[in-house]
Amino acid sequence: MKRINVAKITKWILDFMFYAGIAACMTLPFSLKFIGKFFPHYEIFYIPMLILFFISGVFAILIILELRYIFRTVLEEDCFVKENVKSLDRMAVYSFFIAIISGARLAIVVTPATLVIILIFVIAGLFSKVLARVFDQAVTYKLENDLTI
User: Fold this and answer.
1) What pLDDT score was predicted for residue 4?
2) How far is CA 41 from CA 15, 109, 114, in A?
3) Residue 38: predicted pLDDT
4) Whole-angstrom distance between the N-terminal and C-terminal Cα of the chain?
5) What's the chain's Rg over C-alpha atoms?
6) How far is residue 57 from each of residues 17, 19, 33, 40, 146, measured CA to CA in Å?
7) How many helices (H) and strands (E) does the chain have?
8) For residues 95 and 63, is the Cβ–Cβ distance under 8 A?
């Protein structure tokens, strides 16, 4: 029972993050202009930063969308399905794209935070790939077990 409540709360948080991410991407032109008042490189490289942050934001939203799909199957108590394997594979690709786009940001300005973001998304991509293989194997076992019964 508690596990379902945690899953529902997590699903609600993911829903909030999804819509907040969309809002953040839509307001990015205004946010970068405001930040540019305090950090000159955001003002100097406004257009490239806007493009890179927007693309990264879209991929982050797509990752959250895939997580929402996965949590839907968790709430339905049927999480070992091929769709989750596909979602995990897509999440890995999106994570690697964010790492690459963040790497492109290093050409504009090198910050420790950007290096950490690259590392985090490479690890997230690798983790998603491994987890996709684990889920794929679990789905295979589940289907074989279902056929046995």
Assistant:
1) 60
2) 33, 7, 14
3) 92
4) 27
5) 19
6) 12, 12, 17, 22, 40
7) 6, 0
8) yes
Average pLDDT, the chain: 92
Helix axes 46-75, 82-105, angle to 10 degrees: 160
Total residues belonging to the chain: 149
The confidence score (pLDDT) of residue 23 equals: 97
Cα torsion angle, 57, 60, 62, 68, sign: negative
Q: Which residue from 1, 104, 117 is spatially nearest to 60, judged by alpha carbons?
A: 117
pLDDT of 109 above 70: yes
Does pTM top 0.85 for this prediction? yes
